[in-house]
């Protein structure tokens, strides 16, 4: 293709990437004297009306969307049997290449990118389109570091009853596949919410949550296995951000964010918590991406992006049968026995108030461990806090030696420590030093072995009541 001129206008300069349906080239527009991206359908699909129609629809749909975080379509046509689409050229790397080059990204950068991608997808959803193949390879970075979503090749209109792809056919890339896609069920905007959750997981950890040797194995993991604990791979990740990613990765679409706009809004709140003083500011512009110059030639190294996977009849049947048989959902209170250096699930079981009173919202104790930062256990309201302390009791499920406990609270400035014991009713002994809690705070434990642990509050600080939004532990 190098040197070939398409439609008497676009001179092919360099191969940029290739996938299952098409290849993308850097080309020079000889009419307007500018460089563009030229996407050409593979020749063996040129005689397939279904693939040609899907290719045409991509150009038509994206051309109707003008958004700063969506790659712009410039032209579309056919030349001597070759189907092509012309896009604006984004002369930068994609997110997959960035993560492979740098490893896990800074938390602030992850949130900035997440908001930009969510903004683009929310715009697509508002225009009746579900992307269905959200992955780092399909997010391009400009030289200034701005994110642009591309490759709407398998996007699905929300208002059609019959389209190119019907229920029962699995399309997408396995590492970022939603459970409903893996099961051959209809897609909705919640499908993109899940895939963006996978992308953010990878940006934080430099790993996908469900690696596997083949499409079927990975697809079944998306349907059946709980999401690995992000804090185990990324201890510095804010709990609110972790909770947002985990909510996006719920197996049941109804348990995810109700919309991409809602997901974007929660990411903005996560950003505000990182820098409270900047809450009313526009997002900080991402740092520029430094790229080495290279000659205009075909790259000789093997592309890093995975094969664009389309599961045909036999394989689709195997996946659908397998996932529907196995089923399953995430249960935060269950899992393998805790071993050294791993997350230990905790369950709030009640309050501890040895000083007496009318109770401390015992029934709300499970809210301190429900992986939802919008819910909480809280103390009673006090005009004067004149007792040795109160706390929420957490059950580790079995006797275990915890190394640390991390809590998140929307009412900072109180003093607490961690105590432990073998009964939910006490007695409890001190297992950590005392700290003033500010937002998210981690307590290093002294290594006692116990089943029950208490967030023991000894001073309310400037609060009349203290809230415990989320508590997590590691052995």
| Biggest sheet descriptor | 6 strands, antiparallel
- The low-confidence runs, each spanning 5 or more residues with pLDDT under 50, are 154-171, 276-340
Number of helices: 10
Radius of gyration: 26 Å
Mean pLDDT equals 80
What is the assigned CATH homologous superfamily of the largest domain? Transferase(Phosphotransferase) domain 1
Q: Report the end-to-end length measured between terminal Cα atoms.
A: 57 Å
Helix content: 10-25%
Beta-strand share of residues = 15-25%
SSE diagram, text form:
Layout: E1 5-6, E2 10-18, E3 22-29, E4 34-41, H1 49-63, E5 73-79, E6 82-88, H2 95-102, H3 107-126, E7 129-130, E8 139-141, E9 147-149, E10 156-157, E11 170-171, H4 179-182, H5 189-205, H6 215-224, H7 230-233, H8 239-248, H9 260-274, E12 310-311, H10 313-326, E13 343-344, E14 347-352, E15 377-378, E16 390-401, E17 404-408, E18 414-421, E19 429-430, E20 435-437, E21 440-444, E22 449-459, E23 467-468, E24 470-474
Antiparallel strand pairs: 1-2, 2-3, 3-4, 4-6, 5-6, 7-10, 8-9, 11-12, 13-24, 14-16, 15-23, 16-22, 17-21, 17-24, 18-19, 18-20, 18-22
Helix pairs in contact: 3-5, 3-9, 5-8, 6-10, 8-9
């Amino acid at each position: 293709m190098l040197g070939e001129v398409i439609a008497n206008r676009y001179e092919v300069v360099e191969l940029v990437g290739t996938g299952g349906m098409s290849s993308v080239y850097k080309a020079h527009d000889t009419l307007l004297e500018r460089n563009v991206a030229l996407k050409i359908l593979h020749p063996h699909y040129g005689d397939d009306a279904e693939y040609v129609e899907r290719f045409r629809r991509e150009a038509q749909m994206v051309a109707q969307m003008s958004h700063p975080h969506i790659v712009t379509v410039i032209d579309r046509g056919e030349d001597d049997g070759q189907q092509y689409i012309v896009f604006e050229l984004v002369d930068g790397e994609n997110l997959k290449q960035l993560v492979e080059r740098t490893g896990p990204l800074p938390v602030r950068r992850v949130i900035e990118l997440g908001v930009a991608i969510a903004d683009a997808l929310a715009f697509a959803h508002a225009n009746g389109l579900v992307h269905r193949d959200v992955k780092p390879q399909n997010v391009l970075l400009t030289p200034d570091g701005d994110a642009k979503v591309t490759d709407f090749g398998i996007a699905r209109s929300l208002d059609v009853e019959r389209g190119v792809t019907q229920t029962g056919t699995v399309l997408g890339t396995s590492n970022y596949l939603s459970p409903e896609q893996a099961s051959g069920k209809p897609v909705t905007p919640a499908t993109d919410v899940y895939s963006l959750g996978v992308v953010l997981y990878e940006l934080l950890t430099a790993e996908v949550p469900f690696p596997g040797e083949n499409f079927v194995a990975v697809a079944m993991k998306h349907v059946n296995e709980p999401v690995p604990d992000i804090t185990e791979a990324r201890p510095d990740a804010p709990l609110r951000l972790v909770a947002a990613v985990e909510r996006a990765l719920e197996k049941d679409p109804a348990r995810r964010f109700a919309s991409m706009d809602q997901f974007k809004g929660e990411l903005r709140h996560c950003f505000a918590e990182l820098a409270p003083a900047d809450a009313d500011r526009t997002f900080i512009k991402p740092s520029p991406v430094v790229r080495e110059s290279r000659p205009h030639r075909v790259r000789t190294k093997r592309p890093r992006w995975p094969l664009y996977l389309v599961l045909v009849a036999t394989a689709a049947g195997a996946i659908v049968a397998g996932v529907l048989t196995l089923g399953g959902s995430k249960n935060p209170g269950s899992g393998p026995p805790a071993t050294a250096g791993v997350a230990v699930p905790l369950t709030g079981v009640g309050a501890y108030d040895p000083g007496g009173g009318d109770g401390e919202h015992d029934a709300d104790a499970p809210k301190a461990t429900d992986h939802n930062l919008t819910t909480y256990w809280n103390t009673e309201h006090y005009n004067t806090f004149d007792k040795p302390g109160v706390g929420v009791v957490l059950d580790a499920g079995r006797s275990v030696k915890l190394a640390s406990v991390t809590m998140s609270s929307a009412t900072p400035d109180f003093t607490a420590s961690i105590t432990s014991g073998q009964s939910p009713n006490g007695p409890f002994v001190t297992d950590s030093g005392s700290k003033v809690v500010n937002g998210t705070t981690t307590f290093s434990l002294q290594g006692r072995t116990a089943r029950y642990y208490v967030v023991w509050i000894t001073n309310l600080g400037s609060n009349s009541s203290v809230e415990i939004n989320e508590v997590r532990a590691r052995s």
